[in-house]
Amino acid sequence: MNDMMRGADLHSRSCAGEELSVQDRQELEAWYSAMDAEEMEALLNSYPTLPIDVQLRAEYRDRLAELQATIDRTKAIDDSNSALREQIDELRQKLVARGILAA
Predict the structure, then answer these.
(1) Domain containing residue 88
(2) Is 28 exposed, middle or buried (0-12, 13-18, 19+ CB in 10 A)?
(3) Please, which of 13, 19, 64, 95 could form a disulfide with 100 given CB 3.0 to 4.6 Å?
(4) Is position 20 within any domain?
(5) How far apart are CA 34 and CA 20, in angstroms?
(6) pLDDT tens across 46-82, in order?
(7) Which of 12, 29, 14, 16 is nearest to 72 (CA)?
(8) Number of structural domains, the chain?
């Protein structure tokens, strides 16, 4: 399976709520970063350079930077959610072990 297909598969599994291993999560994050970099490069290179658009290009780059910051915050939230899911699973296991919660 090539990197593109592997990343897409991991993304689909993650979006479906499937728990990913630490290695899978790292691969997915690397894939996201690679896709973001490719997309950013394509966007920056697709906009024509004309002397009269210097201001528009600066604004365009600012919006892209804001978008990247939003993506980064979203990834941080996703990571936090994963950690919380792990804590919930651990707490459930403790409650089951104590007989407070049925398995």
Answers:
(1) 3-97
(2) buried
(3) 95
(4) yes
(5) 19
(6) 766 655 677 888 888 999 999 999 999 999 999 999 9
(7) 29
(8) 1
